[in-house]
């Protein structure tokens, strides 16, 4: 299973991408819009779902869909765990109403999230950004691109993880530091493709080559948050036994998440030496 890495250099149509919902963008189908901004660059699978048409009169179908086994990892760990030879158990959320783990936790105080679904407005629009977070609720390919450019500039690349179905045991083969500027876009569990995108201060992204328990080689993305002062207290204490603002914590991104980072050379992007 290969790791998807699309290197994207913006040399044309920067104003088109920034416009997002501009008149120019409105006149282009989403797929043509991507091709105009990034010629000859395939659209990542997770983002391609944004191109699926909706029934007439429907803006967002908020019913959950059957999630992939590798969609929502819920394993948190420490940065020192990211080294070659480390074996990790990566667990995934598989509840019917599952959402990205760090996104939905703020709702647990007001509803039974194991039995009830959420609306896009509840889980994204109404959710206040925590301290150090810049968030955006994306409903189209153009707005995803526009938010990433607004935070990282024009010369960026888009990456996604490839975990192995039915496998939870992984051994780290190497770690590549992708830098401390990143935008994460988490695909939400609705039948309509929508994303919770955010940029979190003092966050470092990593590319992590892995070997699954069945011997399959793959790669995944991890992010480490050095400043956790604004994060959910219940989540950090339950998963890691730490309080916000104390220990830095890390987590993997699942198969339906997208990571945007400043563009690296291909040699650097695929290096597997430890450079943390």
UniProtKB/TrEMBL annotation:
Superkingdom of source: Eukaryota
Keyword Signal: yes
BURP domain boundaries: 76-263
InterPro entries documented for this protein: BURP, BURP_dom
Signal peptide coordinates: 1-19
Pfam assignment, any one: BURP
Keywords, sorted A to Z: Signal
Name the UniProt record assigns to this protein: BURP domain-containing protein
Designated gene of the protein: LOC547898
């Amino acid at each position: 299973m290969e790791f998807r890495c699309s290197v994207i250099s913006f040399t044309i149509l920067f104003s088109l991408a920034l416009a997002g919902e501009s008149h120019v963008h409105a006149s282009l189908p989403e797929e043509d819009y991507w091709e105009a901004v990034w010629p000859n660059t395939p659209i990542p699978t997770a983002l391609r779902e944004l191109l699926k048409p909706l029934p007439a009169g429907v803006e967002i179908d908020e019913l959950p869909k059957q999630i992939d086994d590798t969609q929502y990892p819920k394993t948190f760990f420490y940065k020192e765990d990211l080294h070659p030879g480390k074996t990790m158990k990566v667990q995934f959320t598989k509840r019917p109403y599952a959402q990205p783990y760090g996104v939905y936790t703020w709702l647990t105080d007001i509803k039974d999230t194991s039995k009830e679904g959420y609306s896009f407005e509840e889980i994204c629009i109404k959710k206040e950004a925590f301290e150090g977070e810049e968030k955006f609720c994306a409903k189209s390919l153009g707005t995803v691109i526009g938010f990433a450019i607004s935070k990282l500039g024009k010369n960026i690349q888009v990456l996604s993880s490839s975990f192995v179905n039915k496998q939870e045991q992984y051994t780290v083969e190497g770690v590549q530091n992708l830098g401390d500027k990143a935008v994460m876009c988490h695909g939400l569990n609705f039948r309509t493709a929508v994303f919770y995108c955010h940029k979190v201060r003092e966050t470092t992204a990593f590319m992590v080559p892995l070997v699954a328990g069945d011997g399959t080689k793959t790669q995944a993305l991890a992010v480490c948050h050095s400043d956790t002062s604004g994060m959910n207290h219940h989540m950090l204490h339950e998963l890691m036994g730490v309080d916000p603002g104390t220990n830095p914590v890390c987590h993997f991104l699942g198969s339906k998440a997208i990571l945007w980072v400043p563009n690296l050379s291909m040699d650097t992007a695929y290096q597997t030496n430890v450079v943390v």
